[in-house]
Amino acid sequence: MTHLVLLAEDDRPIRTALERALTLEGYRVIAVADGIQALAAAHRERPDVILLDVMMPGIDGLQVCQVLRAEADRTPVLMLTARVETADRIAGLDAGADDYVVKPFEVEEVFARLRALLRRTAPVAGDGGAEGDRDGEGQQDATADAGVVEAADLRIDGPSRRAWRGDRELELTRTEFELLELLARNAGIVLDHSTIYDRIWGYDFGPGSKNLAVYVGYLRRKVDVPGSRPLIHTVRGVGYVLRED
User: Fold this and answer.
1) Which of 90, 121, 152 is the last residue of a domain?
2) pTM of the full predicted structure?
3) Which residue ranges does the record assign to the Response regulatory domain (predicted)?
4) To bridge 79 with a disulfide, which of 4, 6, 21, 97 should be the other Cys (CB 3.0-4.6 Å)?
5) Edge-to-edge strands of the sheet including 99-102?
6) Per-residue confidence at 84, pLDDT binned at 50, 70, 90?
7) Comparing C-alpha atoms, which of 70, 66, 78 is closest to residue 175?
8) Does 104 sit behind a cis peptide bond, omega within 30 degrees of 0 on the bond before it?
């Protein structure tokens, strides 16, 4: 299957270079120069993934993402940003983006992040179907139970992609959910950076990348709210672990 990428980038040389590189990589590409065109193309073409520059004239990338999410459009969004501050990256995640890459970037990193986003949205082979319905009620219940992870006062329902801490439901992006689920499934086990990168993004971005630290920090804001026992801990020089102290 050839995936359709919507590329919105107002810098013509970058847009042209990315469009050419994506095409050579085997993607179908719709390239536009601003946020208004991006929204129109997203509504008209239904892309598989959106590559969205943050700073564009008129409607910027953050606003485009906010509009799509308000419309319940869950198309994966990879943000392109020249802003390197953590607060700026968090703003993109707040807007509903699934991942980001900082300019200047290597095109291979863009490809790796796109592949990871597309893997997450790919249908699981053998999901559902009449044959599964004939397996009986007991087996369906066992399958449903297998999709639920509980750690401390966290409860994560994998099939519905919902999570709770106590009675409070957590509002998580796709990447945040997968990171929390990975940590919860391995509660008490320290996961190193390389393992997390490989499991969540399918690619190790190296020791210089701040990507994981930003996501962990943002996840803590939602999970470890003031007044609650912290669950997500940093093991310096190694990685992260979910556990009760």
Assistant:
1) 121
2) 0.60
3) 4-118
4) 97
5) 28-32, 4-8, 49-53, 77-81, 99-102
6) low
7) 78
8) yes
